[in-house]
Design goal:
By secondary structure, the protein is an alpha/beta fold. It has 2 helices and 6 strands.
Length: 109
């Protein structure tokens, strides 16, 4: 799994707890498109609704990462590797953006 960098410079890896107690989520993948933008791709049951979506947003932004926008996307399936697995956490953040965030967080400490 990739590392997600929070806007305050913290690094997070484990996100499986986000979906605990959510029976309407079959599979999910967290993608960091930018430091302040997280996309959660969800393979959902027919019962998945607005309350499930809001709970995911709360658990990602408020309980874990802080000041980020969270977009929940319902998808039919998640992309798989040649071995049949999917990456649960994917970071699309550029190395340059990571470097700036890390420098800024070191300056604050």
């Amino acid at each position: 799994e990739d590392v997600v960098i929070c806007p305050d410079g913290r690094e997070m890896v484990r996100f499986d707890g986000i979906f605990v107690g959510m029976p309407n989520v079959i599979e999910a993948q967290l993608i960091q498109d930018r430091i302040d933008l997280i996309r959660v791709r969800v393979v959902a049951s027919e019962r998945f609704g607005p309350a499930d979506e809001e709970l995911i947003k709360t658990r990602v932004a408020i309980e874990r990462l802080g000041n980020v926008q969270v977009i929940v996307e319902r998808v039919a399936k998640l992309d798989r590797t040649h071995g049949g697995k999917f990456r649960a956490v994917v970071s699309e953040v550029s190395p340059q953006e990571l470097s700036v965030i890390r420098q800024n967080s070191e300056t604050r400490t």
